[in-house]
Amino acid sequence: MAVTDEAIEKIKGMIVSGALRPGDRLPKESELAAELGLSRNSLREAVRALALIRILDVRQGDGTYVTSLDPQLLLEALSFVVDFHRDDTVLEFLAVRRILEPAATGMAAGRITAAELDGLQAQLDALGTDPSVEELVACDLEFHRRIVAAAGNSVLCSLLDGLSGPTTRARVWRGLTQKDAVARTLTEHRAILGALRDADAEAARAWATVHIASVEQWLRTSL
After folding, report:
1. From the CB of residue 162, how many other CB atoms can be counted at a distance below 10 Å?
2. Residue range 46-94, pLDDT digits in tens
3. Could you tell me what percentage of the chain is helix, strand and coil, using 3-state DSSP and rounding each to the nearest 5?
């Protein structure tokens, strides 16, 4: 493993230094191994590892390339790891979401377009006043995804997208067991949308905090 780690660090160093740039094709395996002072086996293991986390793209019959290194692509690895969460860590995911998502919602207040606002309104209108829990949760995920995207920070968007998965089951369970969960969620969504229409970053941030904290508080009392 130490040899493979060394190989990973050397390839990483080439990318960080600019010797290899996004989209570049790596030299032939024999040439790169010789250049880095590595065995071909350790180089192969390093390439496999870096391909798993989307740093490299191995194209059969074509070669190995540095990916675009786009944050959304790189953070797919986070989503993969997050899928292995335990139920007892959901509160921790919600706590992180409570820190990041209100900030993103506040940022969106100064950036979101009229068309994007109208799209959010249409989504809420289509949901109606008495949606099923499954419909509500699907809408909730998309509603917040659109708002975070409007904040204009691709790293933040990817982080929150990756963190949303573990909280989905908690949201469904809350909708099934808490009497006013559906009505409360719809009310909070409308309040967030109203603050965004008013370009009121503080109100948008506050309502997003209330919205996430309500799920967190329900979960704490339910455990």
Report:
1. 20
2. 999 899 888 999 998 899 999 998 877 777 666 666 655 555 677 788 8
3. 75, 5, 20
Could you tell me which of 128, 218, 220, 127 has the C-alpha nearest to residue 174? 218
CB 192, CB 208: distance < 8 Å: yes
SS3 24: coil
Ramachandran bin of 54, using left for φ above 0, alpha for ψ from -120 to 50, beta for the remaining angles: left
Would you say 192 and 204 are in contact if contact means Cβ atoms under 8 Å apart? yes
Report residue 25: phi and psi, to 5°.
-90, 135
Please name the helix (run of DSSP H) or strand (run of DSSP E) that holds residue 184, with its range, or none: helix 181-197
Distance separating alpha carbons of residues 135 and 41, to the nearest angstrom = 50
Q: Where are the beta strands (DSSP E) in the chain?
A: 56-59, 63-66
The answer to whether 2 touches 40, Cβ cutoff 8 Å, is no
Tokens 């009497």 -> residue: 179
DSSP 198: T
Give the tens place of pLDDT for each residue, 112-126.
Answer: 999 999 999 999 999
Q: Shortest CA distance to 105 belongs to which of 49, 146, 56, 164?
A: 146
Under a CB-based contact definition with an 8 Å cutoff, are residues 171 and 215 in contact?
A: yes
Residue partners of 60: CB distance under 8 A and separation at least 6: none
Give the closest residue to 66 by CA, choosing from 55, 74, 53.
55
Contact status, residue 154 vs residue 70, Cβ threshold 8 Å: yes
SS3 category, 25: strand
